[in-house]
Amino acid sequence: MIETACLTKLYGSKVALDSLSFRVEPGTIFGFLGPNGAGKSTTVKVLTGLLRPTRGKAQVAGFDVVEQPLDVKSRLGYVPETGALYESLSPAEYLELVACLHHLDARTAKTRMDELLDLFGILDVKHQRMTEFSKGMKQKVLVSAALIHKPDVLFLDEPLNGLDANAAMIFKELLKKLAAQGKMVLFCSHILEVVERICTRILIINEGKAIIEGTAKDICDSTGSDTLEQAFAHLTGSRDAGQVTTDFLAALDRAGAAVALVPAAGRVCQSGIAFFSTHPQGPTIEQHDSYSGVWTHCGHWVTVCILPLGLSQYLVADGCAGRPDCLVVAPGKGIAEMGPAPHGQTPVSRLTDSS
Questions:
Q1: Which of 130, 124, 153, 132 lies closest to 142, judged by CA?
Q2: Could you say which of 209, 243, 272, 327 would form a disulfide bridge with 289 (CB–CB 3.0 to 4.6 Å)?
Q3: 319 pLDDT band (50/70/90 cuts)?
Q4: What topology is assigned to 2-236 in CATH?
Q5: For residue 283, pLDDT beyond 60
Q6: Is residue 310 a contact partner of residue 333, using CB atoms and an 8 Å limit?
């Protein structure tokens, strides 16, 4: 079984896991859910021996993850959310390496490798370098590596990521059959429709703490929800998706006319950050390191920030009465942080570089 007792993990003063306790019985597909930053990945890393807990206990297949890490690792299969493959190898070479680490003999390793690659439809490319593979093909190799030694416990973090519909269907059916054999599966995913269909038990955590545990039906009934997705949003305090999208589209509509005022902005701005700020005399242009001007629109102050070439096409930050809307305009890709605007103007939003 998988069992944690008062599991706690601190990163300095930040509490990633806060006395988390749960238990996964053999034959269970256990859905492990939570919003971003809830502590799911930290929990999985502790259970797989990649992180030491600050306090508390954790056991996998009857072995303590701190005191007996090699016994734990020999009995688990792990598909991480962002798996790292040796892409210069072929699937055959990579799976031979994994089989060797699990002390499988060559004949058994080859038989299982061919069975798994055939199951996922990539047996014919087993000697091809993975540098040429799509994301989905690489994911199939990762899943095969997690299964090749027939582990008692599977830790799956977004395992369907990149898989085509046929491969995903085969994999979900495989999980059900493994559970029927008494295997334990800890299944992390943000695709709640899949979790609702295949998981026999579900735990939702938030801010490192357990919120609710039970079947999908139990969780829906306890929140008065029709679906697990609705229950999840209710329990984790998510904003109403309909209202968020309505507000966003309204912001696009308010800013749309301002875009038409500056059709050549992307061609003019070559460096620095250009701001359009309000001015009682109407539009004016000043040429410095950046391009700046002034506009009003529909009786409201409108602040337009024109970013350098190579940055985002359009980014809209919603404003409100008495505050400027902030429209970011530029060709290309990526997002840059908006610095202080000239003339005492302050952008509504601050955006971090992701280029």
A1: 130
A2: 272
A3: very low
A4: Rossmann fold (3.40.50)
A5: no
A6: yes
